[in-house]
Amino acid sequence: MSPASATDGRLTSEADDRRGETSLERLDRNLDEMTGELRVVVTGVQVLFAFLLVVPFNSGFVGIGPFERTVYLVTLVCSALAALCVIMPAAYHRMLFRHDDKRHVVFIANRVTLVGLALLAVAMCGSLLLVTTKLYGATAGTITAALVGVAFAVLWFIAPLLRRAARGDAAAGDGRRAPNTRPASGQATAEPGQGKIGVRYDSPVGAQEQLSVDARREQDRVVLRLAGELDLASSPILERALEDPEIAQTPLLVLDLDGLRFVDSTGLRIILLAHESARGRGQEFAITPGSAQVQRLLSITSVAEHMRVIASPDDLLV
């Protein structure tokens, strides 16, 4: 694991501890904050777009030159695209309703909203350029729009990015003073007092989330304990663990889902494939119920109806 990833994971954990929220609760809060901010932005975009739409029907529009017409067209298009971007999160969320993919919705909506804000800044500068040029000429209009454009760039983008970079440097410094003590990927780990063979598959998934898989072998079974979030980015970690040759030689394979905070459709597909593979080689397969979110996903998709669900990995089945 890189120092940056380790630091990001530690900072995320500290944030969770301070707020006392789970990963899903954090996503809910992020989405609520975004929608609240977009209510302010959407109003401004709609007013600007409405203003630009009626401009050509004004009698004075006939007398403007080619430069002003070009500025108007660019401004109108940027305003329309800005409206498209800031309204997109609502439409995207509706289309993915009840698909348990909120993490993807939040992050993709954040990126598109940033693009919308950049387009809105261009549209507002273009509107200012159009009006000022009409009143005082192209030179005054260009200077005014450029100065306002610099203000937009500094306050909306440069200042936040500098602040984020400064916090990142400070976090990296803290990470160097507190070295990571996690075992490397695939490194064997001993479980005190149990005398069991354990292998920990561990690698970073992203800046905020990661998945770990602890494999332990007992008489008639291999138990894979999953902890963290099982999604598109982290699913290869579980796939790699399932490829262990020892798994095929044991009568029972148990996936312990109790440590999972989140599972998306990709993670669910990996669990289904593990079940099918076990059936194909005549092996018993079972899962534990998992968290409330995992149980809800298994219930909605009816996956639990086709698998053996046990209360504890230590329940005897064979």
What's the main sheet like? 6 strands, mixed
Number of structurally distinct domains? 2
- Poorly predicted runs are 1-17, 175-208
Cα Rg: 27 Å
Please tally the helical runs, counting DSSP H or I stretches of 4 or more residues: 9
Q: Largest sheet, order of strands side by side? A: 1-2-3-4-5-6
What percent of residues adopt helix (DSSP H or I)?
55-70%
Order of helices and strands: HHHHHEEEHHEHEHE
Termini Cα gap? 38 Å
Instruction: Give the overall form.
Output: elongated
State which percent range the strand residues make up: 5-15%
Class derived from helix and strand content? alpha/beta
What's the mean pLDDT score?
80
The counted number of beta strands is 6
Describe the structure.
With 318 residues, the protein is an alpha/beta fold. It has 2 domains: 3-177, no CATH class; 197-309, 2-Layer Sandwich (Transcription Regulator spoIIAA), CATH 3.30.750.24. Helices cover 60% and strands 14% of the residues. Strand 1 (197-204) and strand 2 form a beta hairpin. Helix 2 packs antiparallel against helix 3 (66-95) and helix 4 (102-136) packs antiparallel against helix 5. Residues 1-17 and 175-208 have low confidence and may be disordered.
